[in-house]
Amino acid sequence: MKKTFFAIVSLLFFYSIKTQAQVGSYYMVQVGTFIDAKAEDFKPLRELGLVHAQNVGGNLLEVYFGGYSDKAEAQKAATKVKEAGYANAFVQERLLSDGNPVAVIQMATRQTSKPIEWEKFMAAGDIYGLLEKDMIKVVTGVYASTEAAKADLARVQKLGFKDAFVKSVNSVQLHRLTEFETGVKKPLIPIEFDQTAKQSPSNIPSNYEVLTPRDPNQTTTKKTGESIPSSYDYYEKVGTSKTESYQATPLKASMPAINGKIKRTSALDLQKLLKAEGSYTSTLDGYYGAGTLKAYEKSFGENRTIQKYQVLSENMNMDGTVQLNSALQTAIDNLPDDLQAQRYIETSNEPLAQAYHAYLVFMQKGADREVNTLMNAAIRGAFNGKSIKNLSFDPNATYAYERMEQLILHIHYIHCATPSNNAVPCWMYQKHTQESALAYQACSDAAGEGLLLQTCGQFESWSEIKTLLAISADLNTDKKLDNQRIAEAASERARLYLAPAALGPKESKAVEQWNTNLITGLDGWADRDPLNKRLVTAFKLLYYQSQVRLEDYYMTKGLKAEEARGLALATLHTLVAYHLERFV
Fold it and tell me: Which residues of the chain are under the pLDDT cut of 70?
């Protein structure tokens, strides 16, 4: 009975110790986040203790000093770090409950302020440090289990560490030691962190025209040698503007309900096609009612070509992408929810980073003196020695930011003034749609480096448009896709999504002519072969359905039905024109 009692007490004591080890916090001083940082950059700190770093991707290193179980000790260390010249240093707390117990072999304990024989320790394999104030426990591992560590203990002891022993530690307190900490050039593998896919921006032309009619007297030929029609020239700016685009996290435009009370040509065209297919039996009236919807769903479900491309579209990559690995763009993309991105923004002196730092402060505190200080410094840095025509604000004035609308407007101005490839991120449109739209409109006539907006797949999330894209891409006969042209189109699509405005008379005429030429060309190709006809029928079914849906999207933005038609066709142009230009 006594044996059982003591066994239970011992077991409870064991679990108590284990639980305590997982409760509490571990503290480090974060010096900052740096691009291409080297240990030599932190020589003043290395004389005080161990400086260690974590690779967070994109040539970024998060640099830390020391490790502490007591917050007060960490705060004292942070003060010393600031006094050494690193003014943005702060204490970072990590919860032990976020870690896991792991098995390691401890080889020795050393003072961090004295030279350490790193080469000798590295003979054991990967090495880690357990930091506490000015001491470091050097360990090797990590092992899959305590048993695995015990099995390797004799090997480690033979390397000269006769007092080495197996222990269990919390992974939160474990720091991998690399060339940065040791100064020894050995291909140690850095800890990897999952990163969100990065995106690259696209240049939005400052001239807010969707399509520009080509001069009838000007003759231009495509690469294929076929004549380009004189009715439109969407791509006239290619080669004159520095345009990059990328596929960012999809910024989904809500798919609107179709208004069946509006008579329109797009619905009539769809009804004619459905009637020819035998699925629509009602009157050809141009109203998208229940009968049209039922007929469309029947044809969609029975069309094997559509089913094939629907499957292909799920795994289709968007072309026309240029990846930009700018550390600043990466940080901007990942704001405002990613702590690592926030720390980068808060420690960078780049004007655009200061502007987004001001945004973070505004989100936390509202109108605040710090917001004003950061934004005015950002404006001075961005516009230093630069004049941008048609930008209706004075960069030499001092501003107080009381409203989010004004802050976002000036962030857009700084984007326009900054000679770089950094784009206004997708999340800005999502979180502040109205403010971003107003800011874009205010910037649209400015003649600067060009306002860059992320192209975020705004309409491509719609099922009919995804499948339409898959068919269009398959009809493209170019051996190598022209990513520049696809990028231009994606850029224009982002602009149409963000700040739709009715087309002018010339633009409307141009896009209508393009639409007529496209359908005529496809019908002529379809007549040559039954296989062609099946493909064209599937394309037109999706094309007309997408047109109807896009018209409703633009009507929900307050545009009239006639205006929405022009914008819908302009959007379809950005989606399929490049791929299908041989039919126009």
Answer: 1-23, 35-36, 56-60, 185-254, 315-325, 390, 419-421, 444-450, 454-457, 487, 491, 499
pLDDT, tens digit, 9 for 90 and up, residues 554-572: 998 889 999 999 999 999 9
Rounded to 5 degrees, what are φ and ψ at 135? -120, 150
What is the spatial distance between Cα 192 and Cα 424, in angstroms, rounded to a whole number?
Answer: 28
Q: In the block, which residue shows the tokens 């503007």?
A: 241
State pTM to two decimals: 0.50
CA dist 166 and 149 (Å) reads: 6
**Distance of CA 25 to CAs 14, 76, 94, 143, Å?**
20, 17, 6, 24
Q: Strand, helix or coil at 434?
A: helix
Q: Going by C-beta distance under 8 Å and a sequence separation of 6 or more, which residues neighbour residue 202?
A: 243, 244, 245, 246, 423, 452, 453, 454, 455, 487, 488, 490, 491, 494
Q: Are 245 and 201 in contact (CB under 8 A)?
A: yes
Q: Tally Cβ neighbours within 10 Å of residue 474.
A: 15
Cα(254)–Cα(549) distance, rounded to whole angstroms?
A: 11
Q: Nearest to residue 372, comparing CAs of 387, 381, 362, 385?
A: 362
Count of residues making up the chain: 584
Residue 85, both tokens: 């010249």
DSSP-based three-state secondary structure for 558: coil
Query: Residue 47, class by beta-carbon neighbours within 10 Å (0-12 exposed, 13-18 middle, 19+ buried)?
Result: exposed
d(CA 438, CA 312): 38
The two structure tokens encoding residue 207 = 């001239």
Select from 540, 582, 522, 525 the least CA-distant residue to 305. 540
Helix, strand, coil shares, percent, the chain, to 5: 50, 15, 40
> What pLDDT, in 10s, does the model give residues 314-369?
766 554 444 445 788 888 888 877 888 999 999 999 999 999 999 999 998 898 99
The answer to whether the beta carbons of residues 532 and 239 sit under 8 Å apart is no
Two tokens at 294?
């039922």
The C-alpha angle with vertex 175 and arms to 182 and 109, in degrees rounded to 5, equals 70
Residue 89: predicted pLDDT? 84
Query: In sequence order, which residues have a C-beta less than 8 Å from that of residue 31 and are 6 or more positions away?
Result: 42, 45, 51, 63, 64, 65, 81, 86, 88, 89
Q: Give the CB-side neighbour count of residue 534, counting CA atoms within 13 A.
A: 11
The mean predicted confidence, pLDDT, of the chain is 78
Query: In what side-by-side order are the strands of the sheet with 25-35?
Result: 51-57, 60-68, 25-35, 90-95
Residue 483: Cβ-neighbour burial (10 angstroms; 0-12, 13-18, 19+): middle
